[in-house]
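Hello,

Following up on my earlier ticket. Below are the two sequence lines again, exactly as submitted.
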Amino acid sequence: MSTGTPLTPGGMRRLGFAAMGTRVEVLLPAEHVDDGHVVRALFQDWEARLSRFRPDSELSRLNARGGGVVSPLLAGVLDAALRAARRTDGLFDPGLCAQLCAAGYDRPFNEMDPASEPSSVLPLPGGAWRRVQLTDRGFVRLPQGMRLDFGGIAKGMAVDCAAHELRRRGVPGGMISAGGDLTVWGEPPAGDAWIVAIDTDPPVPHVPLRHGSLATSTTGRRRWGATAHHTIDPRTGRPAATDLLQVSVAADTCGMAETVATAALVAGTAGAMDLLERLDLPALLIPLRGDPVTVGAWPAATPLGASR
Amino acid sequence: MPDPSPSRTPRHADRISRMKTGVVLGSAAALAAVGGLIATSGSGRAAQASAAQNTADGSQSTVNPDRFTGSDDGQPVIVYDPQTNSYYQVPSDGSGAQQFAPGGNVQSGGVQGGPMMRSGGS
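Thanks for your patience. The regenerated structure is below:
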């Protein structure tokens, strides 16, 4: 999947670093490049607090004890995750950590054996998020046996938070991406939009994004064994058997875009279209077989390459 | 959400466009906002002030009292407060138009200048 190397427009600087299990890239006006350290510090902080792979993280401690008073950060991410679960009728589910581990994703992906297979023990379906208790003082109680995984939503929300902080510091425009989940703000360096390439094969036209966020979820990456991947269907507790390879969604915030993209991917084409129509969010669906489908206001065009 | 745009019909088949045909059924009008920007104004500042006041009051957390309402009225945003080295949450303020730039350059096979970022899942 190659759609060209991203370009750094004149007058801009690009920063990059690894965090939260992915690569973070920041595109800033050259005169504000020193503000980029804020993004790195923020991602490192979020990873230290919210990673399920760090036994000393606040999330791991909450998962281990099943309840207690949590920090405003963890409470805020959990609150957003529960909203996202409600918004997607549970197709996005933040309580699938145990199911991910049962599928074999029980350590950082770069430490996994690519030939490993999921556990033969049938996993429980998701849905336990409905019984999570979260009070306005940050007290959390998890249902028995449920553990939280904030992998995707935390990355998206960290992008949102970092962009907000850079705006507060007076950075007039920029772009932040965490593994392809990204947000933009301000005037683009050229033209009237920030240009995003969607990784597909064959390639599709680049997406001109003026404001807001865009996120892509796929079953084509983070795969292991014969068929396993990291996107769990909460209805089965197993890696989703979906007719979609990839979903890209544009939304107000990166957290929203990421969670809806995941939910749409799990839902499959028909369910994804229902969900996206209901939420009125533009999207690009890449099916395993057949032509890409655009939903809502997503700009459509003739593929750049051969027909799928 | 009802869409007054005459270009959109209630049927799925008419509301999607297939790249194979290159038909764009969403008009420029349909590119209107779907919600708020990252909270930067109005309620966002109010929430920020509220959170700062919580801190000044010496309460145990900087939680915004608007949080945890159980409603589903938009995606809240986590905000970092460097003065207290803490995070708090503001609701989406629901304002501001955003979305894709309408433009024929997409249909003509891409955008001049090349991509600035890539999105392909992670």
